[in-house]
Amino acid sequence: xxxxxxxxxxxxxxxxxxxxxxxxxxxxxxxxxxxxxxxxxxxxxxxxxxxxxxxxxxxxxxxxxxxxxxxxxxxxxxxxxxxxxxxxxxxxxxxxxxxxxxxxxxxxxxxxxxxxxxxxxxxxx
Length: 125
Hints:
The protein has helices at 13-19, 22-41, 92-102, and strands spanning 2-10, 45-50, 58-62, 68-72, 79-88, 115-119. By secondary structure, the protein is an alpha+beta fold. The chain has one domain: Dimeric alpha+beta barrel (Alpha-Beta Plaits, 2-Layer Sandwich), CATH 3.30.70.1060. The chain has a four-stranded antiparallel β-sheet. A two-stranded antiparallel ribbon has the order 3-4. The chain is globular and about 50 Å long. It starts with a strand and ends in a 6-residue tail after the last strand. The model has no long low-confidence stretch (mean pLDDT 88).
């Protein structure tokens, strides 16, 4: 079964991340790279990516003439997707274990990250 583990950040999370001490950014980056290597070594990692700043995000839809119409930055949004992992594991319990470990990444404050876990569907339910 495939699961997507999504790391969300508050709307101002990217700006806060850039203000962290350099040593903390390095510790966070080192954790993320080591975590990806660990999952890959276990044969559980399908894909993992961090995403660019939400300032660069756009919503796109087709206009009346079929051409792209974009809209962007989203003041009503509280959180943004900061990155994700797609894992292939035996069951949801294992995906939850991986998400819990991912939530321990070094960061500012005492609260662990919250990781959203959703099954990747191969067909409609």
